[in-house]
Design a protein that fits this description.
The complex is a heterodimer. Chain A is an all-alpha fold. Mean pLDDT of chain A is 87; it is low at 1-9. In chain A, 73% of the residues lie in helices and 0% in strands. By secondary structure, chain B is mostly helical. Helices cover 72% and strands 2% of the residues of chain B. Chain B contains 14 helices and two strands; from the N terminus they run αββααααααααααααα. Chain B starts with 7 loop residues before the first helix and ends in a 5-residue tail after the last helix. The chains are: A mainly alpha, B mainly alpha. Chains A and B meet through helix 1, helix 4, helix 5, helix 6 and helix 7 of A and helix 1, helix 4, helix 5, helix 6 and helix 8 of B.
Chain lengths: 287, 294
């Protein structure tokens, strides 16, 4: 909210039009909020209560849907597996990307242009083209059906974007500061941990959050690499429960949706500032 | 240390360090993006189950282009493309309105963005539940005196539900992108247009849209890319590609082929065709929106 003097007529919408526009935006928000609210509310209702009236509120909230999912359908262990995989893959990815980005942003690298162009063009490759060859490669390494296989894929798939993103961010750190640190005798490691990381922290945070959401929601590789039932992650498990399709299952499904979706939503609510900032990095200045 | 001496050996060491920093990412990107592309090309010319590869020349491609299901699936994918103009229209309107700093615009921005952070599986499951035979949508229809619908039996209705899910879950992100494009326009441009007596709609079309041409082009490109490559999650949950093949898109077809390892060559060939189509469309849009020019 800085220097908002031109406030009244940025594109010159008349004052009279502001109220109807507000109402339209509110209605549009309702199409998003109401279904989500319905899901959350349904997840807290018992089957019998739900059959009486689909749109009722959880007047006698119950955890029975969550219980039967977590205990009966093994969603609890899927949740833990997903958490662990993301907790391993995410830091590795961010570490590798931040080191490479530091090199790209602050050192003279032979072939810089080629490397940069490769990173950008690689982001446009449809995942479908990679699916079959990577599956065969992982099979040859006997990594299909093993967690390290999925961790490896998760680390790698987000790497081009992460490196690209951090290179742009680190470039903003003034060279003079790094230069004077070097004159003071700070080596590479010291510069990286005490200058680059702290000064790039908000962009690092934004990236971590974006990549977290991506990994958490991932479905294709999780399904392809960990096919056996006792290794499944959260999204394939949810797809499986939903796929059994039965209308008697809305309350159960709703609970599954809440389990899968609540962490990203929580992250959005807590860190929306970082996310909104992070989304547009590289757009304004990519020239 | 005493005075720094940037002699040659120091420079060389510096270069080596920098390469060392970039190396892990470079190796992984080479190994998991660049090499697989070449590998995929190779596989597409063979008959393979993943363990043996028998050279077959262009046969897989010929098979793809002779197969009527390929054209059917391509047609389905083109239908899904209808979501692109819809998403973009809605996001242009939303971003312009948010740009007006309507009360609560920051709140709206976050709400609109909400579906974007949910997995395609979650969104698909929500829509499937909403449009189920006993679901809330039918309840509303019934209370309005209409017949309940079996939405997923009809190809047309299924396609529209998937498009609705795409629009619902996609417009928030595009709104944020366009909004950032709008924010980078200097307000003087608008003030000048107001002085010239241009009305709101006129300004939207002749001032706002041309000024965010580049962002708009980017939004078009990623939307088309998304429609061609990221529907499998929705489709897997919502329709499983059916009825028949009526909601099977190209990317979902590749997805299925990857899970049936008897014909990986054919799957790879389709994925290369998909890649070619997407690449062509990206280049084309780049030209139309003159993104790389200044």
């Amino acid at each position: 909210m800085r220097k908002e003097k031109t406030y009244v007529s940025r594109v010159g919408l008349s004052k009279r039009a502001r109220l109807p526009v507000f109402v339209i935006l509110l209605a549009l928000s309702a199409t998003i909020v109401l279904p989500l609210f319905w899901v959350i509310s349904t997840s807290l209702r018992s089957r019998i209560d739900f059959t009486k009236n689909q749109f009722g509120l959880p007047l006698n909230p119950t955890w029975e849907n969550f219980q039967s999912l977590i205990v009966g359908l093994d969603v609890g262990s899927a949740l833990i597996r997903t958490l662990i995989i993301v907790a391993i893959a995410l830091p590795i990815q961010i570490l590798l990307a931040s080191l490479a980005a530091y090199g790209m942003a602050k050192y003279l690298i032979p072939g810089y242009k080629v490397i940069n162009a490769t990173l950008v063009s690689v982001m446009l490759i449809p995942v479908q083209v990679l699916l079959i060859p990577i599956y065969i490669m992982l099979a040859k390494l006997s990594l299909i059906g093993h967690y390290p296989g999925l961790v490896l894929v998760y680390v790698v798939m987000g790497l081009p974007f992460a490196t690209f993103f951090l290179t742009l961010s680190f470039r903003d750190i003034p060279n003079e500061i790094l230069e004077s640190a070097r004159l003071d005798g700070a080596g590479f490691l010291k510069t990286y941990t005490q200058m680059i990381i702290p000064m790039g922290i908000s962009n690092l945070a934004a990236l971590t959050i974006l990549q977290f959401i991506g990994m958490w929601n991932e479905f294709l590789w999780a399904k392809l690499i960990l096919q056996s039932n006792n290794m499944m992650l959260l999204t394939p498990t949810l797809a499986l429960i939903g796929g059994r399709n039965q209308h008697q299952q809305e309350t159960l499904l709703a609970a599954g949706l809440v389990i899968t979706g609540s962490l990203p939503i929580l992250v959005l609510i807590l860190f929306s500032k970082y996310i909104m900032g992070g989304l547009t990095v590289g757009m304004g200045r990519s020239r | 240390m005493t005075k720094p001496t940037p002699n040659k050996s120091w420079r060389v060491r510096e270069k080596r360090l920098a390469l060392l920093l970039v190396m892990p990412v470079l190796i992984l990107v080479m190994g998991f993006f660049v090499f697989p592309i070449g590998y995929s090309f190779f596989i597409s010319f063979t008959h393979s189950d993943g363990t043996y590869f028998k050279w077959r020349g262009f046969e897989n491609y010929l098979r793809v282009f002779r197969d009527p299901t390929f054209y059917q699936v391509l047609g389905v994918t083109l239908k899904f493309l209808m979501a692109v103009p819809l998403v973009i229209l809605i996001s242009i309107i939303c971003s312009v309105l948010l740009y007006e700093r309507i009360a609560g615009w920051k709140f709206f921005r976050i709400i609109f963005f909400l579906p974007n952070i949910l997995s395609g599986i979650v969104i698909g499951t929500i829509f499937k539940t909403l449009f189920g035979y006993y679901g809330p949508v039918n309840q509303v229809l019934q209370s309005a005196g209409m017949e309940p619908q079996l939405f997923f039996i009809s190809a047309n209705k299924s396609i529209w539900i998937i498009i609705a899910a795409l629009v619902w879950s996609g417009f928030g992100y595009q709104t944020v992108l366009l909004l950032s494009g709008l924010n980078s326009i200097s307000t003087e441009v608008f003030e000048a247009a107001v002085l010239d007596g241009a009305g709101w709609w006129k300004r939207l079309w002749f001032v706002t849209v041309p000024n965010i041409r580049r962002v708009l082009g980017f939004v078009f490109i990623i939307n088309v890319l998304y429609t061609f490559t990221s529907l499998y999650g929705f489709i897997y949950v919502l329709t499983g590609g059916g009825p028949g093949l009526d909601t099977t898109s190209l990317d979902y077809l590749v997805f299925q082929k990857a899970f049936s390892p008897s014909d990986l060559g054919g799957g790879a060939a389709i994925s290369i065709v998909l890649f070619a189509i997407v690449g062509l469309l990206t280049v084309l849009q780049n030209k139309v929106f003159k993104i790389t020019e200044d």
